[in-house]
Design a protein that fits this description.
Helices cover about 20% and strands about 35% of the residues. Strands 1-5-4-2-3 form a 5-stranded antiparallel beta sheet. A hairpin with a 7-residue loop joins strand 2 and strand 3. The longest helix is centred in the middle third of the chain and has 10 residues.
């Protein structure tokens, strides 16, 4: 499994939301957290060994996130889609 990055400049983003939407060996459902940078979100995603599919999305998201819509809008900065 490899991560994919978009053409968006992560250095211009002040806050990001990490969304984990598929897990290995556990099923807590979709979970998300806000981080101050893409680098911090990526470090957290990689530390979660059970996270199978995740996306780092530009901006603070406090409600349910539709990763497909965010991807279509160009707001997914990095992802691991399985």
């Amino acid at each position: 499994m490899s991560s994919r990055f978009t053409n968006a400049d992560p250095n211009l983003v002040r806050q990001v939301t990490l969304v984990v939407y598929e897990w290995h060996n556990v099923e807590p459902g979709t979970l998300s957290w806000v981080f101050p940078s893409v680098q911090a979100a990526l470090a957290a995603a990689r530390a979660m060994k059970n996270a199978v599919k995740w996306a780092v999305i530009a901006g603070r998201r406090t409600q349910k996130v539709d990763v497909e819509s965010e991807r279509a809008s160009g707001l997914v900065l990095a992802e691991q889609a399985g």
